[in-house]
UniProtKB/TrEMBL annotation:
Domain Bacterial bifunctional deaminase-reductase C-terminal: 2-180
Organism: Spirosoma radiotolerans
Matching PANTHER family: 2,5-DIAMINO-6-RIBOSYLAMINO-4(3H)-PYRIMIDINONE 5'-PHOSPHATE REDUCTASE, DIHYDROFOLATE REDUCTASE FAMILY PROTEIN (AFU_ORTHOLOGUE AFUA_8G06820)
Transmembrane segments: none
Coiled-coil region(s): none
Designated name of the protein: Dihydrofolate reductase
Length: 190
């Protein structure tokens, strides 16, 4: 069975965005881009909430074609165009969307069906509302947390309303030169 891994930038105090959705505190550089680009190449499915999907769709399909595109923009744009996208949304329709599936109801059944399909891990990018919904249904199998060395004090929490206690098992950790620490956890279902 395929696993859903939540890939998320997070502040030291557990927020994924500022109080108004700000993400200007996220620390990224070429070292992180290269690392994430290698990681995503192992996945053929990306999972998004509607807001994150629309943000991605407005940028990534053509980002690699810009004459001043960075290596990361070129690589990620190529991957984004080829990866199967799954979007959790009650308002979007899938008419005319290329390589995209919209899940608007029966979340557990539809996600479990996707997890049964052939392929590699399913990466859940950002999307705090979608992440919360999947957490509540115990559909997330692991977390790749990019912990930024900042305390926001307030904002959109990653672990809000998740229900029962969830035990995690640390798989790997990595320190980046910019101060970001990556922690990879699996969810302990036992």
């Amino acid at each position: 069975m395929r696993k859903i891994i939540s890939l998320m930038h997070i502040s030291l105090d557990g927020f994924v965005a500022g109080p108004n959705g700000e993400m200007n505190w996220i620390n990224v550089n070429e070292e992180i881009f290269d690392h994430i680009d290698k990681r995503i190449q192992k996945s053929n499915t990306a999972l998004y909430g509607r807001v994150t999907y629309q943000m991605m769709e407005n940028y990534w399909p053509t980002a690699g074609e810009n004459p001043t595109a960075s290596k990361h923009d070129i690589d990620h744009s190529r991957w984004y165009k080829n990866v199967h996208k799954v979007v959790l949304s009650k308002t979007m329709k899938d008419a005319g969307l290329t390589n995209t599936t919209i899940i608007s109801d029966n979340l557990v059944d539809n996600i479990n069906e996707i997890k049964q399909q052939a392929g590699h891990e399913i990466l859940l990018f950002g999307s705090p509302s979608a992440t919360h919904s999947l957490m509540q249904q115990q559909l997330i199998d692991g977390y790749c947390l990019l912990i930024n060395p900042i305390i926001l004090g307030q904002g959109v929490p990653l672990f809000a309303g998740v229900g029962d206690k969830t035990k995690l098992h640390l798989l790997t950790s990595r320190q980046f030169a910019c101060g970001v620490t990556e922690l990879n956890y699996s969810v302990d279902r036992e």
